[in-house]
Structure formats: structure tokens, C-alpha cells
Amino acid sequence: MEIAYVAVTCAAVLANAGIAAADLAKAPFVLANSAEVGVSSAWIPALAVLKAAGAAGLLLGLLGARPLGVAAGTGLVLFYVGAVITHVRARVFHNIAFPGVFLALAVGALALAAAR
């Protein structure tokens, strides 16, 4: 179980840190996707900070601050549920797998952290 926790949490940390960096760099795919689902580009930096904070919290949880890791996992799950809902409401399904994968990683990291 410990190996699964470390592996899933590391994957979630790397994925969220990577997408937060892409958001902050205003990568073209980020701008295109946010416009397509109706999220203003003005929100992107704030959303990036939330993703980065989630990644940092998961990492700190992995390093021993378990309550912080659980809180970060919970926040990321809620964040990505919102992202999936945003895609559904905008009827943008061709790339819904991306927030779905981030949601799955967050759920996995949260579930494994809570089970420890």
C-alpha cells in the first residue's frame, strides 16, 4: 500500500505542478482550452496557484504532514470535479479526459493518504 501511495501521490504532484507551470506560462493549449469552456483568461493565474498549492500540499503530506496532504487532496478533488462540471456544462467533451485524469490522480492520492 505504501508503494501505491507514494507512486500515485508523486504522479499527482508532478501532474499538478506541470499544469500549474503551463498555466502560469500561459501556454497556448491552456488559453485555447479555457476559452473553449468559457473560463476567462483572467482566472488562469489564480487557478494555477490553486493547482500549485495542491501539489505542494500533497508533497508535504508525502513528507509527513499527513493532515495537510489530506486537505490538499480534498481541495484538488473538489477543484477537478469543478473542472469536469465546467467541461460538461460547456458541452466540450473532446478533451474531458484531461480533467478526468487529474481528478483520478487526486482521488487516488486522497484515498491512499486517508487510508494510511
Task: Give a structural overview.
By secondary structure, this protein is mainly α. It has one domain (2-115). Helices cover 82% and strands 0% of the residues. It is built from 5 helices and no strands. The chain has helices spanning 2-24, 28-37, 44-62, 66-89, 97-115. The longest helix is centred in the last third of the chain and has 24 residues, at 66-89. The termini are close together. The model has no long low-confidence stretch (mean pLDDT 96).
Topology:
Elements: H1 2-24, H2 28-37, H3 44-62, H4 66-89, H5 97-115
Helix pairs in contact: 1-3, 1-5, 3-4, 4-5
Comma- or semicolon-separated keywords:
116 residues, mainly alpha, 5 helices, globular
What is the mean pLDDT? 96
Record field, number of beta strands = 0
Rg on CA atoms, Å: 14 Å
> Stretches where pLDDT falls below 50 for ≥5 residues?
none
Largest sheet: none
Which of globular, elongated, flat, extended, rod-shaped describes the shape? globular
Which assembly state applies to the chains in this document?
single chain
What count of structural domains? 1
Distinct helical segment count: 5
| Helix and strand pattern | HHHHH
The share of residues in extended strands comes to under 5%
Which structural class do the helices and strands define? mainly alpha
Terminal CA distance reads: 8 Å
**Range of helix content:** over 70%
